[in-house]
Amino acid sequence: MRFVLEPEQQDMADTLRSMFAAADVPDIARAWAAGDGEGWRKLWQRIADLGVTGITLPEERGGLGLGPIELTLCLQECGYAGLPGPVIESLALLPSLLPDLTADATARTAVVDRHVPYALDADLADEVYAVGPTSSRLLTGISLQRRESFDATRRLFEVSSSGDEEIAGADFDRAFDLAVLGCAAYALGLGNRMLDLATEHVKQRQQFGRPVGEFQAVKHHLANALLKLEFARPLIRGAALSAGTPHGGRDASAAKVAAADAAHLAARVALQVHGAIGYTAEHDLHRYLTKATALRQSWGTPAWHRRRIATSLSTDPDTPIGSP
After folding, report:
1. Closest CA to 14 of 65, 58, 50, 64
2. Max Cα separation, the chain?
3. In this structure, what DSSP letter does residue 89 have?
4. Domain ranges (residues) in the chain
5. Are strands 119-120 and 127-131 parallel, antiparallel or unpaired?
6. Which CATH superfamily is domain 172-315 in?
7. For residue 166, with 0-12 CB atoms within 10 Å meaning exposed, 13-18 middle and 19 or more buried, which class applies?
8. Where would I find the beta strands (DSSP E) of 39-135?
9. Cα dist from 237 to 2, 55, 222, 259, 320, whole Å
10. PANTHER family annotated for this entry (predicted)?
């Protein structure tokens, strides 16, 4: 199976990475955590101008008409930048769920039955939804109750509403699986960024007169993290290829488990090589550490996804993961 990116796909990823690097995402994230969404909305408008907010929408609805592979590439770059906000909801979940959605710069968030009990950044979002296997609704007349979050930039809210609008024709299962896949891609981006931060740190930090990165034990830790991340990458690509098939949910779960575990290992290694400074909220590593930890439990816990994989393999053990 071919997993090499096409030139157009690589150009898309490179464009996003350059835009995020120039936008000072760390400063935007700090403001977002404090409830100031002005900088984020300006960046989100630029993302919409590139067509990313409608990446999977058909051209007749103002989208790019691309598929899950391009979606995962964009979310991986969002993860690498540590972009806050309801990114997975706005790019993966709701465009697949809402049959009449058009491409725009609207920020959308959702409560997802069983897996996402609190709406992410509901106070700064333009639209709040409640979605599940039996019904999906746009909530109106909402009231919010703030909840504690491990990641300061993941601002969680319990939502109650005085009214709602039922969404007809919503395909919850496909939308949820795309969101799980998007979460896996975002986690992979987080892991890659933490590994890059750790690698750069050990090149500069001196001990016994030479860079820490020259010590074999440090190299082994970094190599183990890189290996874990690289093994998760083809699972994400395979799940993107099988999205929408009878095995798409299982493959998305496999990608989520692998990417979340890889990001978790990268976080541990990065924290170990950074030492005490990695624990401080002032260091950029802290943003990625907390986000990777939170996302590991979001969009389905590791235990839930492993059960889904095991159930699928027990009933159909001959279909490989990533098979179209």
Report:
1. 50
2. 67
3. I
4. 172-315
5. unpaired
6. Butyryl-CoA Dehydrogenase, subunit A, domain 3 (1.20.140.10)
7. exposed
8. 108-112, 119-120, 127-131
9. 9, 17, 23, 12, 13
10. ACYL-COA DEHYDROGENASE, ACYL-COA DEHYDROGENASE FADE28
Q: What residue has token string 């750069």?
A: 200
The owner of tokens 């016994």 is: 208
Q: How far apart are CA 222 and CA 213, in angstroms?
A: 9
d(CA 150, CA 250): 28
pLDDT (tens, 9 = 90+) of the chain, 324 residues, equals: 556 788 899 999 999 999 999 999 999 999 999 999 999 999 999 999 999 999 999 999 999 999 999 999 999 999 999 999 999 999 999 999 998 888 899 999 999 999 999 999 999 999 999 999 999 999 999 999 999 999 999 999 999 999 999 988 789 999 999 999 999 999 999 999 999 999 999 988 767 777 776 778 889 999 999 999 999 999 999 999 999 998 999 999 999 999 999 999 999 999 999 988 888 888 889 999 999 999 999 999 999 999 999 999 898 877 776 665
- Contact (Cβ atoms closer than 8 angstroms) between residue 247 and residue 319: yes
Single-letter amino acid, residue 283: H
Q: 221 is written with which tokens? A: 């830790």
* Pairwise CA distance, residues 110 & 135, whole Å: 13
Cα–Cα distance, 77 to 146 (Å, whole number): 28
- Flag whether the pTM goes above 0.70: yes
